[in-house]
Amino acid sequence: MAHSEKRASPAREFAIASFAGALYGAAHTISGHPLDNLKTSLQLDPSFRGLSTAQAARQLYASHGVHGFTRGCVPPLLGSSFYRSIMISSYELSYTWFLRSTPKDSFWQQEVAGGYFPRPMVWASATFCSLARAVVEAPFEQAKVMRQTGQGWEVGGLYRGSGMQAARTTGLLLMIFGPIDIIRSKTDWMSSIWNQWGITTFVCGGAYAIVWPLETLKNAAQAALPRPGAGLAERVAFLGGVRGLYKGALPGIVGGGVRNGMGMLAMANAQKLATWLGLRDTR
């Protein structure tokens, strides 16, 4: 998913992707945080219940001004740069290892359904990087959600909701890395940076739409709503039933697509720069 450049060794790809992934994370947060705040208000603030996205945006601005859209930005800005660096670099390490160290006719590289279903190496690499990301992401996400909902965060609760977070992240990344790997291998659509932006925006938006209920449950668990330790049924009831699991879906899905597209622009340019600087020895 990370790039179309000719690959070097797994260790070299890991090092380059650590930097490129950090740029991805910074661009991801800066471009999408206002929409992220809006969707969190729709998901978790009872005073926003029943409002449309436009009505919620007006209410958020009326209540908090511009700060309503930017509050809680610092934890995810720092965290996103860090854990997306971990995410991209661990994916590149695993993917490149499979590419370089296993035979092309092996189980790991074997095409499925004529190459129109993700190869096992993609599933394995996406799962590996999602778990690596979840370990470092959970504290930053918990702090962000607490700040977005006007609560103070505490050290003892930084891994609250981490199980739901890991499930959300694994599902999300499998549905992002898989299609993009197929598009890269079967088409030339990713040959230009602007195509990469458009395709990443579309694929990521679709992935967010599919896993959205897990995103809502993750946020509720991290914000300790309706209470710390609440069970799944109690949490779904608090959110307003099954329909409540899709609260904030529109700004969240649009924001998820846009911010990942912007992250891809930053990362793709960094990967091209690495090749141009001679940092990728592909001999």
Automatic annotation (TrEMBL):
Q: Where are the Solcar repeats?
A: 12-97
Q: What is this protein called?
A: Mitochondrial carrier protein
Instruction: State the InterPro entries in the record.
Output: MCP_dom_sf, MCP_transmembrane, Mitochondrial_Carrier
* Bilayer disposition of the protein: Multi-pass membrane protein
Q: What is its main location?
A: mitochondrion
Q: Is the keyword Transmembrane helix assigned to this protein? A: yes
UniProt keyword terms in alphabetical order:
Membrane, Mitochondrion, Repeat, Transmembrane, Transmembrane helix, Transport
Taxonomic path = Eukaryota, Sar, Stramenopiles, Ochrophyta, Bolidophyceae
**What is stated as this protein's family in its record?**
Belongs to the mitochondrial carrier (TC 2.A.29) family.
User: What does the UniProt entry say about where the protein is found?
Assistant: Mitochondrion membrane
